[in-house]
Amino acid sequence: MSTRSEYPDQPVVGVGGVVISGDRALLIRRGSEPLKGTWSIPGGRLELGETITEGVVRELREETGLDVRVVELIEVFERIFHDEAAPASATPRYHFVILDYLCEVISGEPRAGSDVTELAWAREEELGQYRLTPTATRVLRQAFQMVRTRPR
Fold first, then answer.
1. Which of 88, 106, 136, 141 has the largest count of CB atoms under 10 Å?
2. Whole-model pTM?
3. What pLDDT, in 10s, does the model give residues 83-119?
4. Which residues are catalytic?
């Protein structure tokens, strides 16, 4: 069995963490494929032997320098990328099943790490200027709504 992300033998589990502080969400600019150079939610591939929660915590630490507590599942979705020149029946270049979670910061100062080139804090009304994917925008809006309706 292969554990590679590109041209995988089976779908790869990805995890992401949405951190909202006050009225702003933490975004990252991806430093590697897929979606290199685009703004997104911090996250990456779940490693063999770690729980989903452990994977979210590790990915957030690696990509943002923050230690977080995983609060609640926001959404599960899949992302499949095919090579444009390949026939539709060909093995996809990437196939991720992604679980995005709402997270709270425990400690740390945000900094771009591992596969991240830049960080930004964005208010909900500013999300459009980051040209996020429609799915990332939807997940972030759901996270803002969850924070607004959470008991204090």
1. 136
2. 0.90
3. 877 666 677 888 999 999 999 999 999 999 978 999 9
4. 118
